[in-house]
Amino acid sequence: MSARIRYAYLKGQTWLYRRNYPKDVAALLGQQALKQSLKTGDVKLARQRAAEVNVRYDAIVEGAISGATKLPTRNADAGEWSRPTEAALVKLRTALQRVEPAHYAVNARPGQTVDKAIRSYLLRRQRELRPGGFKSVRYSLELFQSKFGNLTLAEISREEGRLFLMLIEGLSPNIGKSERTRGLSLDASVAWSRNSNARISGRTQRRIWSQVNHWLDWCVCEGELESNPFSSVRFEAKVVHKPYAVPTDTEVLKWLSWQDPLIDKVLLTCLLSGMRAGEAAGLLRGDVVEKGKLGWFFHVRPNRLRLLKTDAAERMVPVHAALLPILEALPSEGPLFPGLTVNDVTKRFAVMREKLELQRPGLVFHSTRKWFITQCERTGVPEHFTASIVGHKSARSENGITYGIYSAGISDEQKRQIVDQVRLPERCSP
């Protein structure tokens, strides 16, 4: 259970205080609540600071009530209450604003540079993130580090944030895809990007920007900064969601007929189970279990080869009848697909797609998952049933009920019936 602090809540890595004023006091002050950052992510320190802000809150409320009784009033028309003059209200609010908010000292080291702070952060995040996620964070921060690494944290202002946003807008999506462009500084990357008109999407810009801001929030929590200097910098790039394409049966048939020696079996597994590429590539022989008359199931769970995307991703998925001959030919112990990584799968699929001249936008290996979900939908399977098989986090019914809270999930027998209804386009026997 997460820690709870009265009148405070955790946003990101920082505790924030909010306490509503009584209605009459709120009317006098012209604001509904007392709000203040506690400038820490540590629960014990946040609890102590919340108590200090409570003292300030009590002083403001007491001052408002006692001050209101002494306000000069003007005579109202008959039948109306007497009301304080506007000048008197302004004077009272000004006096109450002098009840200073608590100021929390930071343990900032005067010589702490951006370069050192980023290196410390990356060392910590390397232990917490999966390789793919860490690679993304490291890329974003190293871009920032290459431009502002020699500055101290105290010298970072919103102007550096605005400059950083302007520079990353000019980056090409091809940066890092060749030996020549790997490890380039931000300035060098922008200069190289001028050779073409292609630019990274608003979505990628937002990811880079949010990862840099996450690091600055961490600096605040560590006491290296009093506040995030980029919090007031507005991100204005337009973010357009580009969903994966759903492959047609014709496209699926072309993939399978190609019978790629490296990924054909993984491709078929994902098409008939809805698994993600990493989930399928990371299967062990021990993850294939028999359930009596219901047959064989894939137990998708964390193992020594890979973790899972979410808690909901751990699940039991029936093995489709078309996969049984393939399973028999795979290794009897250890990994079912030895040496195969997600990177291998996606790159090989891209090559296969190019050779088959299937370059429709959004058509990627992950589209196999969308194909499986679409087949379930077309056979009348409820959305929350399909979600239980593919491992989606928030499966909801038509009435909006979150099944993760109110249901133990569908039975293995129901799952078997759903998977058995999925039919592949005609293809050569595996």
- Name the CATH superfamily assignment of the largest domain: Intergrase catalytic core
Separate helix tally: 17
- Low-confidence blocks of residues: 73-84
Oligomer: single chain
Whole-number tally of structural domains: 3
Q: Tell me the radius of gyration.
A: 29 Å
Q: Which sequence of SSEs, written as H and E, runs from N to C?
A: EEHEHEEHHHHHHHHHEEEHHHHHH
Strand order of the largest sheet: 1-2-3
Helix content: 40-55%
Shape: globular
Strand percentage: 5-15%
Distance from N terminus to C terminus (CA atoms, Å) equals 49 Å
Largest sheet: 3 strands, antiparallel
Structural class by secondary-structure content: mainly alpha
Task: Give the secondary structure arrangement, pairings included.
Blueprint: E1 8-11, E2 14-20, H1 23-29, E3 33-37, H2 43-68, E4 73-74, E5 83-84, H3 86-96, H4 114-128, H5 131-148, H6 158-168, H7 186-193, H8 202-221, H9 249-258, H10 264-271, H11 277-281, E6 288-290, E7 296-300, E8 315-318, H12 324-329, H13 342-355, H14 367-378, H15 383-390, H16 403-406, H17 412-420
Antiparallel strand pairs: 1-2, 2-3, 4-5, 6-7, 7-8
Helix pairs in contact: 2-3, 4-5, 5-8
Key terms:
mainly alpha; hpI Integrase, Chain A; 430 residues
Task: Describe the structure in your own words.
With 430 residues, the chain is mainly alpha-helical. It folds into 3 domains: 89 residues, no CATH class; 108 residues, no CATH class; 172 residues, hpI Integrase, Chain A. The chain is built from 17 helices and 8 strands. The strands form 3 sheets. The protein has a 3-stranded antiparallel beta sheet. A hairpin with an 8-residue loop joins β4 and β5. α2 packs antiparallel against α3, α4 packs antiparallel against α5 and α5 crosses α8. The chain starts with 7 loop residues before the first strand and ends in a 10-residue tail after the last helix. About 3% of the residues have low confidence.
